[in-house]
Amino acid sequence: AQTVTQSQPEMSVQEAETVTLSCTYDTSESDYYLFWYKQPPSRQMILVIRQEAYKQQNATENRFSVNFQKAAKSFSLKISDSQLGDAAMYFCAYNTDKLIFGTGTRLQVFP
Amino acid sequence: NAGVTQTPKFRILKIGQSMTLQCAQDMNHNYMYWYRQDPGMGLKLIYYSVGAGITDKGEVPNGYNVSRSTTEDFPLRLELAAPSQTSVYFCASSYSILAGGYNEQFFGPGTRLTVL
Q1: Exposed/middle/buried for residue B50 (C-beta within 10 Å: 0-12, 13-18, 19+)
Q2: Helices (H), A1-111
């Protein structure tokens, strides 16, 4: 069965600095998608970035980028130039026909 | 487009009561999902549907039932509420992977359910 592990329950970063959130997963599939979702206090699940497993190039969305290491089954999220609005829970998710979520990392951003 | 809508936003139930959580989407997605999120945890899949008339169990289906009579609606039924079902419930929808999409899931705002 596929599993997703986020080993950092909480992280903190200073405003304008860079932070990296870790995620590892386990699967025997070769074709799948990986996602990072943000959940602010409003509870709304917001897609931050996605990665297709067959693409070697790391995905980038403005200040958000990933480091995708397929052989190591690792999918970390880097947030550059952190902003106060980035404070939220971040969930890594693995997907073939269903999404499997990690337990989340709470990110605090300090001014 | 309203996207994915859920009603109610909040509900308190007594043990043994029943209720239906409503979910609707107007994006013509054929996949729909129900998740629960317990405090400090990620989302866990309860049930999902790949199209009208087709449903299947997820990771934590016990105590719940679903039906999918239309593409737009996917209600979740709790028959005998128990304190263990206190959680936040999210509905989501997506296009089919077979359509070549990313299967990005679009989430509703959630329903906070408390069973006392």
Answers
A1: middle
A2: none
Among B33, B58, B103, beta carbon nearest to A33: B103
CA distance A43 to B58: 22
Each of the 111 residues of chain A gets a pLDDT tens digit; together they read 778 999 999 999 999 999 999 999 999 888 888 999 999 998 899 999 999 888 889 999 999 999 999 999 999 999 999 999 999 999 999 887 678 899 999 999 999
DSSP B73: B
- What value does the CA radius of gyration of chain A take, rounded to a whole number of Å? 13
3-state SS, residue B2: coil
Using an 8 Å Cβ cutoff, are A64 and A110 in contact? no
Question: Which residues of B are less than 8 Å from A45 in CB distance?
Answer: 43, 90, 92, 105, 107
